[in-house]
């Protein structure tokens, strides 16, 4: 059980390994852990040195504590971390110092976050490569990390599109064939499947679902 978050304790305990909602692949990527109550929240600097009263050091400590608390809720990309700090009025030089510190600790890692988003997109949302690439871009994942994650994605959009179409075909049984096809292709398009992939998946799923005597596509 996780200990309640506090600002004055001195013990450091690691947050449990958690994943993005619905992202629990068979071979789960390693999730970095942020201390539930870290030395950033306690008296004294992270390395145990005595607290310095300098204003710049105080600003860095405050920014580190704020970002650590935010990361305990969910992972952020480097860009999202910078945006979070900037929106809280942290000066640019302090933002870079804090982000560099968290990168060195492994609490910010675009490559790991990209892997989590990829697994969430494929295993829970049934998304295609295009939709996953868009998600990585929207989350501010660096180009190198995004390209590496997408390169590891199997070239099986057709299979995933068909699996998703099959899961939705039964719910379209009350519609005529043309309407069902249009709706199913729209659902597939919203998940990043387009053109021939969406059309073939929708056609196959509806033919299978209505194969017991219904109108079949050719």
Please describe what this structure looks like.
The chain has 218 residues and is mainly alpha-helical. It folds into 2 domains: 1-153, no CATH class; 157-209. It is built from 9 helices and no strands. The chain has helices at residues 55-71, 78-87, 92-105, 110-123, 129-138, 143-151, 157-169, 177-190, 195-209. The protein is elongated and about 70 Å long. Mean pLDDT is 77; it is low at 1-30, 42-53 and 213-218.
List the helices and strands and how they pair.
Blueprint: H1 55-71, H2 78-87, H3 92-105, H4 110-123, H5 129-138, H6 143-151, H7 157-169, H8 177-190, H9 195-209
Helix pairs in contact: 1-3, 2-3, 4-5, 4-6, 7-8, 7-9, 8-9
Key terms for this structure?
218 residues, mainly alpha, 53% helix, 0% strand, elongated, disordered N terminus, disordered C terminus
Q: How is this structure best summarized?
A:
This protein has 218 residues and is an all-alpha fold. Helix content is 53%, strand content 0%.
Shape: elongated
Query: What distance lies between the first and last C-alpha atoms, to the nearest angstrom?
Result: 56 Å
Q: Work out the radius of gyration.
A: 23 Å
Secondary-structure element order, N to C: HHHHHHHHH
Number of helices: 9
Structural class label: mainly alpha
- Percent of residues in helices comes to 40-55%
Query: Unreliable segments (pLDDT under 50, ≥5 consecutive)?
Result: 1-30, 42-53, 213-218
What's the β-strand tally?
A: 0
Mean residue pLDDT: 77
Instruction: Characterize the biggest β-sheet.
Output: none
Strand content: under 5%
Number of domains: 2
């Amino acid at each position: 059980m996780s200990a309640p978050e506090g600002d004055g304790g001195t013990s450091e305990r690691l947050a449990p390994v958690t994943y993005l909602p619905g992202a629990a692949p068979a071979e789960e990527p390693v999730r970095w852990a942020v201390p539930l109550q870290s030395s950033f929240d306690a008296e004294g600097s992270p390395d145990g040195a005595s607290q310095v009263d300098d204003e710049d050091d105080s600003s860095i400590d405050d920014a580190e504590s704020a970002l650590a608390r935010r990361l305990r809720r969910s992972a952020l990309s480097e860009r999202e971390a910078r945006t979070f700090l900037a929106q809280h009025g942290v000066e640019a030089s302090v933002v870079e110092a804090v982000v560099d510190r968290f990168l060195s600790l492994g609490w910010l890692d675009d490559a790991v976050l990209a892997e989590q988003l990829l697994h969430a997109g494929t295993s829970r949302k049934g998304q295609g490569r295009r939709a996953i690439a868009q998600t990585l871009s929207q989350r501010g994942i660096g180009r190198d990390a995004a390209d590496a994650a997408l390169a590891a994605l199997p070239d099986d959009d057709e299979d995933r599109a068909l699996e998703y179409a099959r899961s939705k075909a039964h719910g379209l049984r009350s519609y005529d064939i043309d309407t069902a096809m249009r709706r199913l292709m729209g659902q597939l398009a919203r998940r990043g499947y387009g053109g021939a992939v969406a059309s073939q998946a929708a056609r196959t799923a509806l033919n299978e679902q209505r194969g017991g005597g219904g109108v079949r596509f050719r």
